[in-house]
Amino acid sequence: MFMDRSRRAACFTEENLEFQRKILERSGLGKKTYFPEALLRVPAKPCMAEARKEAEMVMFGAIDELLEKSGVKANYSFINSSYVRHYYIGLR
Q1: For residues 16-29, b (16+ Cβ closer than 10 Å) or e, as one string?
Q2: Per the database record, which ranges form the FAE domain (predicted)?
Q3: Cα 66 to Cα 61: distance, rounded to the nearest angstrom
């Protein structure tokens, strides 16, 4: 899928595409490997907004899972904690 998107982007030379193919083959990445949404669009849209969206999805997902497993409820005092504030403010 990644190689198909790279070809359709029409911005890589055959040499670039061959290099990408070799890297993909040797890296162990498979058809089910995750790629950021920004790279799967045609044309690709690598930008800060897309990177932030992906980072938030990963971080908030991990925190949601941790809270669910630990049984901790995210209330105002949790959100106001210095650790959470530190990371949350950094995302703004």
Answers
A1: eeeeeeeeeeeeee
A2: 2-74
A3: 9
